[in-house]
Amino acid sequence: MSDKKIALFGWHPDVVNYEKWPGMSAEKLRAMLEGDRDKLVALGYAVTLHYIRDGETAYDAATEALQGQPYDCVLIGAGVRRDDDHFLVFEKLVNAVHKAAPQATICFNTNPSDTADAIKRWT
């Protein structure tokens, strides 16, 4: 069991353009993200899932979510990182983590089902 505190950042399932992600829906994404969180909790991590809603507020929302919280690791989801239309949102999140949680390692998943593997690499 771990006592590590983890923050997961990804798009809120209600704001994703699912035309870019064939076969995915808000319900499927929500279930996958919550499943990732539950798997990490079962492994002993203290996990907080943070949803971002738009690029304009991503930096401030992430900074606010991280301030005052001693997170050990922060994951930025593949939906942000792998979508070229959201490159600047990804950059904002990385910089928010760097500024608001400099003690935390940063990791990335490749899809909503390998989050635990990404977290375990860095904790």
Automatic annotation (TrEMBL):
| Entry superkingdom | Bacteria
Q: What is this protein called?
A: 6,7-dimethyl-8-ribityllumazine synthase
